[in-house]
Design a protein that fits this description.
Layout: H1 10-25, H2 30-35, H3 42-54, H4 56-66, H5 74-94, H6 111-123, H7 132-144, H8 146-153, H9 157-161, H10 165-174, H11 179-185, E1 193-196, H12 203-212, E2 217-218, E3 224-227, E4 244-246, H13 249-257, E5 265-269, H14 275-283, E6 287-292, H15 295-308, E7 315-319, E8 334-340, H16 355-358, H17 361-379, E9 382-392, H18 401-410, E10 414-424, E11 442-443, E12 456-463
Parallel strand pairs: 5-6, 5-8, 6-7, 8-9, 10-11
Antiparallel strand pairs: 1-3, 1-4, 2-3, 9-12, 10-12
Helix pairs in contact: 1-3, 1-5, 1-6, 3-5, 4-5, 4-8, 5-6, 5-7, 6-7, 10-11, 13-14
Length: 465
């Protein structure tokens, strides 16, 4: 039955979050699952679901210690994990001696409230009602015996790091002095960053409008604004007017790195959802082809460009596989190409915490092969003297530096130009602004020294004419 305003309780949120955790464990993305959540519950459910995803390794180990035999009902299993994730945070927050207390973005309730509402959640569901006593007993036992149970759970690497073991191993190999900081950073939500549409507004104009609306924000980089607290986009001044787009600071670099000028023919391959497409159109009066293999996501590109006032006769949207040239290329070469190719998205885990649990180690090899196929095909469509910017939102070297080196080795006419290379989502206190010896990566820090960008990789190539 649909919820009505005034009838929402924490038990409703816990049950909805459990459905989302169940969906992720079945292989469905959290974004898709949340989209199907009752609109009145969505905001609270997102907060709890994101927290559960960030603590799923620990929550799973705690459930296994308390209930060694996995419940046959997957929703019951998910509800226990959601409650244990919240309960562990509640106990930590209440401990005066605890270090690293939860930040404002983490949902914190008293232990009694978590137990009571989890039992209510079980009682409100026909198939979970018989397990109300089990839920109550498991959660209360955890509170009574927490030190012993926690010590048992921490024997699992997934519980200690809240990432799959293969993920941890890859980061240890790639970043021997920074892997722990990277894992910790993935459990801290990233800030909400905006890119100002220079064709419709100026940074100070937007900041003034935000201040008038009581929205705290600052501009750490040219053309960029970072909010002190995330807000619904429709509630921010200038959204409907197309003054700005939501875009992470690291992602904003793409529009600056690819050289474009008036009159150029430009390709944005793998364009959805269109943030980088819009940035290129804001830079110069170009003829641009936005390409994506997903028609639904390509529709989002058009919606974004329309809102920003950037759709015109020189913009063409095409739905096709970028590597299948016969399906979309007309034979006229491009002056510049942005190849923001598919990847594991390991660099944006702090914004999409379900990714770590959805990916498998074999995906790294699979996406690397797909990337090679795409960039090799795109290279043939580039004019001599033109530029190709290779980009991924990944921190795995197989999708970044190793891929760029292999590309240069396959193409004798490719000249690699200066670009950021690997960007890591680390605060300067977690590592040097330039990576330590053996760690070929930089840190996504803004001018004030704070790191706010996601994990990204950029390599820029010119085609020797």
């Amino acid at each position: 039955m649909p919820l009505r305003p005034g009838r929402i309780s924490l038990s409703d949120t816990l049950l909805a979050a459990a459905r989302n955790v169940q969906a992720v464990q079945a292989g469905r993305s959290l974004s898709d699952s949340l989209a199907a959540t009752d609109a009145l519950l969505r905001a609270s459910t997102q907060a709890v679901s994101f927290h559960a995803m960030r603590r799923l390794g620990m929550a799973t180990a705690l459930r296994e210690a308390l209930v060694p035999r996995k419940p046959a009902n997957p929703l019951l299993d998910a509800l226990l994990k959601v409650a244990l994730a919240l309960l562990d945070t509640a106990v930590t927050a209440a401990d005066p001696a605890a270090a690293g207390r939860p930040g404002r973005e983490v949902p914190v309730y008293t232990p009694h409230t978590v137990v009571d509402q989890a039992v209510r959640a079980a009682g409100s569901h026909k198939k979970l009602k018989p397990f109300k006593g089990l839920v109550n007993g498991v959660l209360r036992r955890y509170l009574r015996e927490r030190p012993v149970i926690l010590a048992q759970a921490l024997q699992s690497p997934e519980a200690r790091y809240n990432h799959p073991c293969w993920w941890v191993d890859r980061l240890q190999q790639a970043y021997p002095s920074q892997w722990q900081a990277l894992l910790a950073a993935a459990d801290r939500p990233g800030p909400m960053a905006l890119r100002v549409n220079a064709r419709r507004a100026q940074v100070e104009q937007v900041l003034d409008a935000f201040r008038a609306a009581g929205v705290r924000a600052e501009s750490p980089l040219p053309g960029a604004i970072v909010l002190a607290e995330a807000r619904p986009v429709q509630a921010l001044p200038g959204f409907e007017q197309g003054w700005w787009s939501v875009q992470d600071l690291s992602a904003q670099q793409a529009g600056w790195l690819l050289p474009v000028a008036d009159g150029m023919r430009v390709l944005d391959a793998c364009a959805a959802p269109g943030g980088k497409t819009a940035h290129l159109l804001e830079q110069a009066d170009i003829r641009l082809t936005a390409l994506d293999s997903d028609p639904g996501r390509l529709a989002r590109v058009e919606e974004n460009l329309q809102r920003l006032g950037l759709m015109h006769d020189g913009v063409e949207l095409k739905c096709a596989d970028a590597a299948e040239l016969d399906a979309w290329w007309d034979g006229e070469r491009f002056d510049a190409i942005l190849a923001d190719v598919p990847c594991t998205a390991s660099g944006v885990v702090r914004r999409h915490p379900d990714i770590r649990w959805l990916r498998r180690e074999a995906d790294v090899t699979r996406t690397a092969a797909l990337q090679r196929r795409i960039v090799d095909a795109l290279w043939t469509t580039l004019k001599p003297g033109g530029h190709l910017l290779y980009a991924t939102c990944s921190i795995f070297p197989e999708e970044g530096e190793l891929q760029a080196q292999a590309f240069a080795g396959r193409h004798a006419d490719a000249v690699r130009l200066p670009a950021p290379g690997q960007i890591l989502p680390l605060a300067p206190s977690a590592g040097a602004v330039q990576a330590a010896a053996g760690d070929a990566a930089g840190v996504a820090a803004d001018q004030s020294g704070r790191a706010t960008g996601d994990g990204f990789f950029y390599a820029l190539f010119a085609k020797n004419g």
